[in-house]
Amino acid sequence: MHVTGADLEPALTRRLAELGVRAGQTVTPMHRTSGGARVVGVDHTRVALARAVLRRIEVVPA
Amino acid sequence: MSPREVPSCHSDAVGVEAEAGTPVVALVGNPNVGKSTLFNGLTGSGRDVGNWPGTTVAVGRTLWTHPTVGDVVLVDLPGAVSLDPLSPDEELTRELLVEQPESERPDLVVVVTSAVHLARGVYLLRQVRELGVRTLVAVTMLDVASRRGLNVDLEALASATGGPVVGVDPRRRHGHDDLTEAVADALAQPAPPVETVDDDALAAAERRFAWVTGVVSATTERSHVRDSWSDRLDRLTTAPVLGPVLFLAVMWLLFQATTTIAAPLQQALDSFFSGPVTSLTTQVLTALHLDSTWVAGFVVDGLIAGVGMLLTFVPLMAVMFAFLSLLEDSGYLARAAVVTDRVMRSIGLPGRAFLPLVVGFGCNVPAISGTRVLPDARHRLLTALLVPFTSCSARLTVYVLVATTFFGEHAGTVVFAMYVVSIVLVVLVGLLLRTTLLRTLGNDPLVLDLPPYQLPLPRLVATSTWRRLRGFLRTASGIIVATVVVVWALSAVPAPGRAGSFGDVPVQDSVYATTASAIAPVFDPAGFGSWEATSALMVGFVAKEAVISSWAQTFATAEPESADDPGALGDALRASFASSSGGHPTPAVLAFLVFLLAYTPCVATLAAQRREIGLRWTLTGVGVQLVVAWCLAVAIFQAGVALS
Questions:
Q1: Among B338-347, B472-481, B514-523, B529-538, where is mean pLDDT lowest?
Q2: Which chain A residues are Cβ-neighbours of B81 within 8 angstroms?
């Protein structure tokens, strides 16, 4: 999926961007984890994101 | 290379001062890239190493004797994703780089980056470059990246970034010579000019991202899709049901390790000190005609008992530290943090705080050191303040004795209830602290990088365990031995007007007993305001293990063979509580048990706390524990009396 933006507080948006989750990048939602978070593949790295964060990341199908 | 430690306001290291003009080289990098391992490998100095974000808590500074440059101050800065900080540890890195006057900035910044997360490292490099400092890039994890089908061309990286680049493997100590040489070359170059950055932070970040994307695509070659065994493993370790089960199994293993490996060693050390060491010392003292003087008491009951107590903690701490290193180095700890995240968030802590709290139920001392798994200093502080409320195994022996004495066949239920109270206290005190002393604590949702799994290297685990153990002994030994000696001294001095001489006085006639009698009225509203109960609590402040033996001494009965068969001590306890509670022993005993659970666990825990959170917060914690314990005990006794 292509990220188009994120509706989160600026510091968190910036941190996500630094971890690779930013507009123009492709991310791969992977499995759901215990506690309702989800592992997201960003290139060759893996990041666990809370549901509350995922909901506010805007994406369009790749 | 012979490292000498340089004093720093952020570390407890002591050593020689660096001469003025000594070049300063700082290691900067994202968490988990092997920065501290590189630092240790280069200098041989004692910094903690681990595959976990933020294991470099304070700033390590060591004088590194470079083969060509001579003395160099090597600084290991806390792991940071970028120079726009989100946690206090990242803030420290920013402060030391950005907010320093230009003349005080490091002469060279080595940006340590993992080949797997190249884009993140290059982003950090760009930010450091903007400051006008010489930079050198050290790329780690080239092997992990190539297993994932990612090949980083170091020469292309050097030309794309326009600066020197070397490949290193800190875990296996490969590439150190190349890096050492590159440091000398980089220091010989003139410092680059400070770059003007867009005032708009977002626009500045966009420009950096554009540059990073260009650099990464010009230097990285993807040969095949990432090997998915790591993903398959993640699917198991973080799965909704299996993840927590696996985590509990790992915790169970930790407890098994402490009981099967550490406990027998602890007992052996304890018997060694109370047996051969004590008898040999007594023989020596007898030969010197000192056996009937206070010197014998001071040496045997003060010094040997104190050192013996300190050393019995060593096996437990070693097992705990080795286990922590294994969890960190393997990369599993990040997965455990995901699994426990939701539960811990209910008290405003991230998932990884679960580990020290669980460990606390075994022993609070290693649990306090375990708070180092938390990357945020404020979370470490809150967790270290909550650990004492987890009911350690030393408290269990007292619960069993008291519950068997007073509640007979319901003893099991009472002991179980103590554990429930312990968990409730952790939650309630956590919420209380968050709304009072620690109001600034944020509660950011889970955003956690999952580092690559790695096979732990025994050498790294061993050195990390030894360094942490050495740190514990260095800071804890003084407090523990001193407190045991003070307690001995108080019980050796006869109270004014009582018979006896220094070192030869029955305990009830000592200053220790009169101190307990003076404090006892404080516990009248809780129903256990007797000097016997108070003196047990005073001893319990030093170590809960000593409570039962202190009672045996106080009531002049034999120490029970086992805690579930109190014998004569049980009769004496029943009489004492019946008298101090005005005929309401049951609520008084419950109040006593809850007080025992909630007040300061032992002096060794305080020593560990002082090391992790400083003296001021340790004392604040003691205050919170005493207030919570006293209020609860009074409430329980008063409610019990009112209901009966």
A1: B472-481
A2: 15, 18-19
Identify the pLDDT of residue B56.
43
Check A46 against B234: CB less than 8 A apart. yes
pLDDT of B24-81, one tens digit each? 899 999 988 888 889 888 887 544 444 333 444 456 677 888 899 888 888 888 888 8
B244 Cβ under 8 Å from any chain A Cβ: yes
The backbone region for B60, taken as left when phi is positive above 0, alpha when psi lies in -120 to 50, beta otherwise, is beta
Residues of chain A found within 8 Å of residue B82, distances taken between Cβ atoms: 14-15, 18
- Look at residues B487, B583, B599, B584 and name the one whose alpha carbon lies nearest to residue B539: B487
Task: Say whether the ipTM exceeds 0.90.
Answer: yes
Which one-letter DSSP state was computed for residue B501? Answer: B
pTM over 0.80: no
Q: How far is CA B618 from CA B158, B362, B611, in A?
A: 49, 20, 9
Answer whether B209 touches A (CB < 8 Å). Answer: yes
Give pLDDT tens digits for B147-170: 888 899 999 999 999 999 999 999
What span, in angstroms and rounded, lies between the C-alpha atoms of B607 and B615?
Answer: 9
* Chain A residues touching residue B209 (CB < 8 angstroms): 17, 22
Q: Which residues touch B198 (CB under 8 Å, ≥6 apart)?
A: B204, B207
Interatomic CA distance for residues B530 and B519, integer angstroms: 9
